[in-house]
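Batch manifest, entry 17 of 40.
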Amino acid sequence: MNRTFRNRTIVNRTRVNRIKKISSIIVLLLIGLSGPLRANVPYPDDIPVWTRLEVEKAFISRETTQANRDMFSAAEFGWHVLVNGRLVARISLYGTLYYPAAPEDEVDLVLVERDVLSDDRVSVVKMQADRNHYVLNSQGDEVTVTRERMEPDRESGVDGKPDGAIVLRAGRILQGSVDFLGGDYTDYVRVPSAPVSILVIKTMGVVLDARGDAQQAAPAVTQYPNVNRLARETIVDFPNGYGFLRIRGAIGSGKQEYRLLFAHGENRRAELLKQVLVFVRESDELQSSFRQKDFADMFMEYDSEGVPNTCRVALFQNNASERERVFCALCLYKYNRAEDIRRLNQRYANETDFYRDVLKQSYEKSTQPAE
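Output type: C-alpha cells
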C-alpha cells in the first residue's frame, strides 16, 4: 500500500539495517528460548487473561529518525510493552506480541530505538481500552494497534493447575504437549517427597521452571546441561524433592511436545541411566551426531562417575545396540581413562559407519601423540 507523508519518513531499510535487525531478533529469540530453569520466572502467577497486540501502522518522524541514528546505520525502531512498569514483551516496528494483561488494562507502550545489546527509550504512551490510535510525541510519531483478548490456558485442563498436577511413575515415559496459541499453555508435574531426577526430551519451544506449593518456597533444583540451554534434552534434578515442574509453551508458539523419564530416591542417577539406555536403544531420535554428543555430555555432567561405570558394562560385557555403543563410547572418551581409551580404539575399525562417523573426532584425538 502506497502512502505519502509530509516531513515524515519510515525507517530506512538499508542492508546494514536489515543485518542489525536480524541480529537483534536472533539474540532476543535465543534469550527467550534458552533461559535457565528457574524459580523466578517472568510470569510467576498463572495469569488467565492475556492480550494479543498487533501493530497495524507506525509512522516515525524525520526528526526522531535523525536524532536516533548512529554513524554506522539508520535508526531501527521497535516497541516495548510494560505492565505495572515491568517489561513483558518487545517487537520490531511492525509485528505481533502477547502480554499478560487484559486489553482493557492500562499498560505502557514504549517506542524504542533498537540495538542488539540494549534498547533506548524514545517515547511512551499509556494505552486505553477505547483507543487504538496514539500520537506519541510533539514530533508527530504515531501508531495504530489492534488488541485481542486471549486465554492461553483455556484448554489446559486439570493439569494446568498445581492441584491437578500429573503424577510421574518410575520406569514409564510420560508423553505430553503444550500449545500457547492453541489454549493449552501449561502442564504441571508433581515432584514427590524424595530426591527426584527427570529427563525432559522436548522441542525447542518448551519452557520449564520449578515451583513450590502453597506452603513452600520454590524447591532446590539443578538443571543439566548447565551451559547449553538450547539443548532438546535436559535433566532436572530435585535433590530434596517436593514441589512441581511447570511445563509451558514458549509465548507465541504453537504445539510443543515433550517426554519425561523419571527416577527417584538416593539411587536415582543409576536408575535414570538404566531407563536412558533403553530409550537410546529403542528410540530413533538420536540419529544426529550433534544430539548424540550433547546427550552424552549432559549425562557426564549429571553423573561423571556413575555413567562410565554403567557404560563399561554395557559396552564391553553386554551385547549393546549400535546407539548404546555410540552413547557409551562418547561418555568413556570424555571420561578419558587410559584403559577405556585403549579398548575403545581397538574396536573402532570394526564398528559401523554411523559409530565411526560420530566417534571419529574422539578417536583421532585419542591417537595423537602427546605434546
